[in-house]
Automatic annotation (TrEMBL):
Belongs to the eIF-2B alpha/beta/delta subunits family. MtnA subfamily. The keyword Isomerase applies. The active site is at residue 263. Its EC number is 5.3.1.23. This is Methylthioribose-1-phosphate isomerase. Gene3D superfamilies: translation initiation factor eif-2b, domain 1, Translation initiation factor eif-2b, domain 2. The record marks 179 as: Transition state stabilizer.
Length: 398
């Protein structure tokens, strides 16, 4: 597995790789409070649906470990933890992993208080709640990599059986991905990039293409960095080149599939992901290229019926009109120690900057999760009941 780590953690200490400085500088920030985590997530020093949830959950665990909770009763301890989690939930609205993690953690602390500690002294009950919270946050972090390895396995197998183009004599396939869904967006291995990594590890990847992913350039800054770091045969394109790339299918490049991650997959399979995903899905359908969403079940939102119910985060205008990068010297060499922010558009232009878009289930061929691959039934609909029966029943029972 990759040595790249977006999140470094040991009990009481959390460090987060500042992704704003990548690919040129590797700098870890210590994140010890919910406020620091909120700022780190909002400013996108950490990003990617699973990583956002992990950093929020662990940061609150670190402050609890360091004695931030001054509550004098178990009830107050629970309400303190609830309020910190509710605050963290406001950092970024579209990805559901954080919301799902918060629901889980709130359940854990309530169960910890009812599981045989009632007769204990108040302080012991509060300590048990805090210990249960920290252990559960650590478990979210630990399980994420396991989850991603399974997504990689299921996804690569599904692609090799369902997306192999006719001309593939050697059984290898080429794929395109968007945004960054790798080690930097998770605790390790990645989701969509994990599928690519698994194809590569199995000797079945011919070539990976990644889009630049304007305006934030997660593709060129982060995915390209991960692909080069892993020695995966790969090529960077701008977002606007995908159609031209698909049009060379069968001639130059046999793109078998587009594999993307997700910030929120809702009950009918409509999927919110990085802006530009929807356009890729339309193009893929037109060119007969499979379109696959690779995401953990923690990115599935069973409460929201369709994509129309997803709140899309809008970000500031400067992300389109300005850009930061390392300075390139007269000799053509990149000066990694010197970065500059430059204007790339008239600063007076009006800007629309939605961070995500919604791809209709109709355009998605498969949703790959750690529990298996979900494809549409004879009725043309996704049904997540089979892979998450308990969560499905909990929602149905409401
Ligand atoms: O704005 P970002 O960088 O947080 O957006 C990230 C994405 O859209 C990813 O595709 C998604 O979160 C999945 S990451 C495994």
């Amino acid at each position: 597995m990759s040595g790249l780590q977006a999140i470094r953690y040991s009990r009481g200490k959390l460090e987060v790789l500042d992704q704003l400085r990548l690919p040129h500088e590797h700098h870890y920030d210590e994140v010890s409070t919910s406020e620091e985590a909120f700022d780190c997530i909002k400013s996108m020093r950490v990003r990617g649906a699973p990583a956002i949830a992990i950093v929020a959950a662990l940061a609150h665990g670190v402050e609890l470990y360091n004695g931030s909770c001054k509550a004098s009763s178990p009830e107050e301890t629970i309400s303190y933890i609830d309020s910190r989690l509710d605050y963290l939930k406001q950092s970024r609205p579209t990805a559901v992993d954080l919301g799902n993690a918060i629901t889980h953690l709130k359940g854990v602390i309530r169960r910890a208080d009812t599981a045989g500690h009632r007769e204990d002294a108040t302080a012991a009950r509060s300590a048990a709640i805090i210990e249960a919270y920290i252990a559960a946050a650590e478990e979210i972090f630990r399980k994420d990599t396991e989850t991603n390895l399974l997504i990689g396995e299921h996804g690569s197998r599904w692609l090799l059986s369902n997306a192999v183009p006719g001309s593939s004599a050697d059984g290898k396939i080429s794929v395109l991905t968007h945004c960054n869904t790798g080690s930097l967006a998770t605790s390790g291995h990645g989701t969509a990039l994990g599928v690519i990594r698994s194809l590569f590890a199995g000797g079945r990847l011919r070539h990976a293409f990644c889009t630049e992913t304007r305006p934030y350039n997660q593709g060129s800054r982060l995915t390209a960095f991960e692909l080069v770091y892993e020695d995966i045969p790969s090529t960077l394109i701008t977002d606007s080149m995908a159609g031209a790339l698909f049009a060379t299918r069968g001639a130059e490049y046999d793109i078998a599939a587009v594999v993307v991650g997700a910030d929120r997959v809702v009950r009918n399979g409509d999927t919110a992901n990085k802006i530009g995903t929807y356009a890729l899905a339309v193009l893929a359908r037109h060119h007969g290229v499979k379109f696959v969403v690779a995401a953990p079940t923690t990115s599935i939102d069973l409460q929201t019926e369709t994509g129309a119910g997803i709140r899309i985060e809008e970000r500031k205008a400067e992300e389109l009109t300005q850009i930061t990068g390392a300075v390139v010297g007269e000799d053509g060499k990149v000066d990694v120690g010197r970065s500059e922010r430059v204007a790339i558009a008239h600063q007076g232009i009006g800007v629309w900057n939605p961070a995500f878009d919604v791809t209709a289930a109709e355009l998605i061929d498969a949703v790959v999760t750690e529990k298996g691959v979900v494809t549409k039934g004879a009725d043309g609909r996704f049904d997540f009941r089979g892979i998450m029966p308990e969560r499905w029943a909990a929602v149905a029972g409401k």
